[in-house]
Write a structure and sequence with these properties.
About 25% of the residues lie in helices and about 25% in strands. By secondary structure, the protein is of the alpha+beta class. The strands form four sheets. It has an eight-stranded antiparallel β-sheet with strand order 15-12-14-13-17-18-16-19. The radius of gyration is 22 Å and the shape is globular. Bound molecules: flavin-adenine dinucleotide. The site of flavin-adenine dinucleotide (FAD) has 31 residues, from strand 3, helix 3 and strand 10. Pfam families: ALO (PF04030), FAD_binding_4 (PF01565).
Amino acid sequence: MPGKPEGPAGPAAPETTVSVTGWGRTAPTAARLIRPRTYQEAANAIRSCGARGGIARGLGRAYGDAAQNAGGAVLDMTGLDRIHAIDADGGTLLCDAGVSLHRLMEVLLPLGWFVPVTPGTRQVTVGGAIGADIHGKNHHVSGSFSRHVLSFELLTADGQVRTVSRGTPLFDATAGGMGLTGVILTATVRLLPVETSYMRVDTERATDLDDLMARLTATDHRYRYSVAWIDLLARGAATGRAVLTRGDHAPLEALGKATRAGRAPLAFRPRTLPAAPGFVPDGLLGRATVGLFNELWYRKAPRARVGQLQRIATFFHPLDGVPHWNRVYGRAGFVQYQFVVGHGQEAALRRIVGRIAEHRCPSFLAVLKRFGDADPGWLSFPVPGWTLALDIPAALPGLAGFLDELDEEVAGAGGRVYLAKDARLRPELLAAMYPRLDDFRSLRAELDPRGVFVSDLSRRLGL
Ligand SMILES: Cc1cc2nc3c(=O)[nH]c(=O)nc-3n(C[C@H](O)[C@H](O)[C@H](O)COP(=O)(O)OP(=O)(O)OC[C@H]3O[C@@H](n4cnc5c(N)ncnc54)[C@H](O)[C@@H]3O)c2cc1C
């Protein structure tokens, strides 16, 4: 591959010292931000990153401290964003790890292909998608991102580049390994064929948590994509009321030839609204405002509607339409809390949802989903069961202690929290949540004995 590192020589990548945060904007730390333009520059940066080590960063959409490294180097990989090859017959892609899923959609959709898994934003890189082994609304059918990765090239601590194929320990340590095994330079990914850039979506309301779980359990298998927005401020009989949106890629015949959609069935035209204001008064997203929003959101949703056509961007990435929406939480930022508990742990889920509702967490971005089979990544998050993700303003009084209590409850139910969202988990719970942690640590100790790859997350949790 052109530009593959050969030795220590070569130019240095541009670098600046900046304050780095995750998407939640909590816990900023200063680091040398290095932006390699070639694989050689990436290798040079790793070889010379110094005692505080280095970590790869994509588009910084991890909510917590996974892609930051206080006093060390952070490699901004978005300068390496080429698409090298698309096999339009076989449906595979070879690209740099710094390319975003947004860019891939722009290029692939007109060719009739889609990314195999997309999270709730398309502003993530392929490297970040593998590093966190991200999941999407199709996890119950398609598993997580790494299931669709055939191989990748990994720059390791010794400055070498290894080709890593699926089914090997290094693959399984890297998929979900939060950048701690090395820097992914390129990846070969299997794609999903689609006939249109539209989704056919069914919407329904659930009156409470039990109703929601029953609907998801009974009918999720009919849909490739499934998720439920859940009102975590509703209490009493309405606790856990929700709006389910489920669907699949619309076939050509669903569009109608004479319509705008039918004339350009594979067009990708995401809409963008004005950016969220740079300054929002702290406390704006208090219980009263969010409670009102949730009430309106629930009531405006149809009780049952089938077959609505939606653009891909509307269905998967509504928040991407508002640039910098994370500013609405004010100066203190916000915490995303996402956990999973296995099937059979419905009582634990009920208790946790009840506690969140009683605690009156002002959360308007809360979703519940059923995960399917796990993938082999040692620190990969999804396991079969129920996952709940919610945003909470970081300034909420008593939040740290409350989330510590929820962690205990999650760990007690054999569940885990998602490292890509985390900014505050206590390290002593990690081994119970991630049983392959020792394998991960052993492989890292062998592959990276000097501890070159390090992040604020890895220091905090002793990964
Ligand atoms: C609005 C929103 C919705 C989201 N929805 C979901 C969702 O539905 N499902 C889900 O799973 N996640 C979701 N996320 C989280 C997001 O998908 C992950 O955090 C993802 O890893 C971010 O990718 P990134 O390119 O921004 O990586 P960053 O945030 O920059 O980094 C994330 C991790 O990947 C590592 N990494 C990045 N690039 C490389 C590389 N080249 N080589 C090695 N390691 C690398 C970093 O070291 C870090 O540990 C969401 C985030 C947002 C903001």
